[in-house]
């Protein structure tokens, strides 16, 4: 394996990106970047500032101005925006409902992509980063690039298992299926680009998925 290793993982909601990326980072002793947490943090920032989701100029201004601090430790996840800890808040349904207002604006993506590249380069050991455009836009030169997929039913069941009684069936479908449809407007995370390994996780356990990605990393001379 190279002395510095970069692993890029993309996929739709509930495909297992975060859990897989954290497991791989632990197994290979690498830093971990949750790029989606940054989109979610910006959503909190614009909502806090009273900006309406339809106000594109307002959402862009809130993105550019957002001071985002994020942990790169797979065992200690936290994110702060404009000085406030929003680790728990970014997982709330109101954030999932409005985060696509950020992800569907090219200017917001450009701003976050530049920060994400810098964060991926911060640790000399290397990094495992996950999101929607890590394999294609943020780090197309990554040593290992993986696109995780899973049937919609499996993804709904996984996200439902996480959120439990906090959401009803309609809210769950909005969080997973509507959000994926909106999020795919500017990035393609359903087809594997050239050189990207496609891994269907529908019938795999989390451990099996982690082992498959670690094996890909170990294949590198
Ligand atoms: N292969 C898998 N089999 C079963 N459950 C999984 C698998 N991968 C992830 N999960 C579970 O599904 C939920 C969503 O996973 P997560 O990693 O947050 O997905 P994503 O980051 O793609 O939205 C978590 O509760 C996680 O433990
Ligand atoms: N690299 C990324 C990461 C996330 N996003 C967007 C798309 C998602 O709706 C939000 C939140 O991403 P997150 O990975 O937390 O979402 P899931 O956990 O997969 O449901 O951010 C993106 O557009 N590009």
Automatic annotation (TrEMBL):
This is Cytidylate kinase. It catalyses: CMP + ATP = CDP + ADP; dCMP + ATP = dCDP + ADP. It comes from the Bacteria. ATP binds at residues 11-19. It comes from Propioniciclava coleopterorum. One of its GO terms (biological process) is pyrimidine nucleotide metabolic process. It is an enzyme of class 2 (transferase). Signal peptide: none annotated. Belongs to the cytidylate kinase family. Type 1 subfamily. Residues 7-218 form the Cytidylate kinase domain. Keywords: ATP-binding, Cytoplasm, Kinase, Nucleotide-binding, Transferase. It is found in: Cytoplasm. SUPFAM superfamilies: P-loop containing nucleoside triphosphate hydrolases. Its main location: cytoplasm. One of its GO terms (molecular function) is dCMP kinase activity. It holds the Pfam family Cytidylate_kin. One of its GO terms (cellular component) is cytosol.
């Amino acid at each position: 394996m190279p002395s510095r290793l970069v692993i890029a993982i993309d996929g739709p909601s509930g495909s297992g990106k975060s859990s897989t990326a954290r497991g791989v980072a632990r197994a290979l002793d690498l830093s971990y970047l949750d790029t989606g947490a940054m989109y979610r943090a910006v959503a909190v920032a614009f909502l806090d500032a009273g900006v309406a989701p339809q106000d594109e100029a307002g959402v862009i201004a809130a993105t550019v101005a957002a001071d985002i601090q994020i942990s790169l430790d797979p065992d200690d996840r936290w994110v702060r925006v404009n000085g406030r800890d929003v680790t728990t808040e970014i997982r709330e349904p109101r954030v999932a409902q409005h985060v696509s207002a950020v992800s569907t604006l090219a200017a917001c993506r450009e701003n976050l992509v530049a920060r994400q590249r810098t964060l991926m380069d911060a640790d000399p050991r290397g990094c495992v980063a996950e999101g929607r455009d890590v394999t294609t836009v943020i780090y197309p030169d990554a040593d290992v690039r993986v696109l995780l997929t899973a049937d919609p039913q499996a993804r709904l069941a996984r996200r439902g298992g996480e959120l439990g009684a906090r959401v009803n069936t309609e809210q769950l479908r909005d969080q997973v299926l509507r959000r994926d449809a909106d999020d795919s407007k500017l990035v393609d995370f359903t087809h594997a680009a050239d050189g990207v390994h496609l891994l269907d996780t529908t019938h795999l356990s989390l451990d099996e998925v982690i082992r498959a990605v670690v094996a890909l990393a170990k294949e590198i001379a």
